[in-house]
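Hey team,

Filing this mostly as a record. A colleague (T.K.) asked me to run one chain through the structure pipeline before their review meeting, and I want the input and output archived in the tracker in case anyone asks later how it was produced. No errors, nothing strange. Just documentation.

Input sequence:
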Amino acid sequence: MRRREFITLVSAASVAWPLRVRAQKPTLPVIGFLHSGSEASAPYLVGFEQGLKEIGFENGRNVTVQYRFAEGHYDRLPAMVADFVYQKVTVLAAVGGVQTALAAKPASAVVPVVFANGSDPVQFGLVKSLNRPDGNITGVSFFNAQLEAKRLGLLSELVPSARAFGALINPANDNAANQLKDIAQGARVVNRAITILKASNEGEIETMFASFAEQRVNALLVASDPYFNSQRTKIVELAARYNLPAIYEWREFAEAGGLASYGTNLIDNYRLAGVYVGRILKGEKPAELPIVQTTKFEFVINLKTAKSLGLTVPPGPLSVVDAVIE
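Output structure:
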């Protein structure tokens, strides 16, 4: 977003904001927490507030956290950022996908920004380097969006008899182009035909699952995306309805009944973001805080789901699994 467009959004927010809110003078520092997904499925909030607590801040005691969620409507993010800027939040936590961080970056001219997402922050122009962000923005990078090929490989080991793979991707995600390349590369490595379908809302998700069934897809990769995460219960239910083995990014999918997941620990990622927000509240500069890169990845298998799908998990995947749900 261009600077002029952002200033226009901030001005519009100032007109629309209720007078009674403008008149308030908060006595505590305010953290604006903006997520592109849904509050309904937000286990990461526990991790975020845990990170704040580690640095000495507790929501409602010596800091106020204002939570807002775009509910998968990524086009709403710039206006929501503008609202937070108008309120003069002390720090802005822009989490839940690179699209949130990109919407918040213009605001870093006036407010410190901490992001947490699975994309490469240098590639997307959020920071100049991982060790020296060199700006008023820093955060946590867990590279989950770059693991699609790895997930395809694990899926081929879990369901070796499957010949036709499917991948569900959200075209509204700024990382979609990179994911498509990663998926294509992974499909070549495992030597599987792959059908890629796109969905960015609840109705499209249902339609795409029906399409996968019509095209006789044997196994499914659900690509990394905050909106998909917020819809994980529905997605897992659809996979079960169509008897479709699927692999996902977060262990929360496997805990909800998905066959398997491979990615980093979501709650700990947000804990790290909370720690950085706390450090900035204590006076540290974002430019002096290197990008945190999470390096621990979890492979989780739900054996109960495997049994319901009629699958026997081969010894190979079981030998490298980090957690088993029975």
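Quick notes for T.K.: The radius of gyration is 20 Å. The domain at 3-143+265-293 is CATH 3.40.50.2300 (Rossmann fold).
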